[in-house]
Amino acid sequence: MFPLRSVLNRAVLALTGVACLLVGLWATAPRTPLAGRLPSWWPVPGPHTVFVDRHRLADLRLESWWTPTVMVGAIAATVLFALWSVRQSHGGFRPLLPLAAPGSTLRTRALEDAVTQRAVTVDGVARCRTRVLGGRRKLRIRMRVWLRPDVTPAAVLPALAALGAQTEQAVTPYDVRTHVRFSSVPHRRTHVR
């Protein structure tokens, strides 16, 4: 399964490609057999001319809406692409956590994996996903825990609290806040055919 960012990247690239394809088809439509079916107001350039020639562009520039529309479109596109680029470069970095022992560090991904593996061993937990968010001296651990059918959160919460305390002790200089979100695995239903 792809992470959400990868899926979004592919979706944006696909939508951009489809948009470029549609604009290209639209720009070449008067030269196709569809030219006879176009509305009467549709501009039909000659066979050896461009879609928007210099005279038509000069006429567009004289319109009062042209300059603000082009400026707003250009600024919006620039801001959106800049935010997207910043978001792409920000998400790939996984910080190293310096620990109390001299010269020792811990990758947040390794901490996530260790907490997840320990949480899955708790009786009643079907699966778990963990995310560690680091700050200057604070760590936030977000756990999404799926419980087995007929298991209540109260049954597993003491073991998960103990796991949070062990994690805080392991990363001693950091103040750890653990947030647990519970979901349940649905009962398997028998299907009658």
Automatic annotation (TrEMBL):
Superkingdom assignment: Bacteria
KW Transmembrane (keyword) present: yes
TM region(s), chain numbering: 65-86
Keyword tags: Membrane, Transmembrane, Transmembrane helix
Protein's recorded name: Alkaline shock response membrane anchor protein AmaP
Lineage of producing organism: Bacteria, Bacillati, Actinomycetota, Actinomycetes, Kitasatosporales
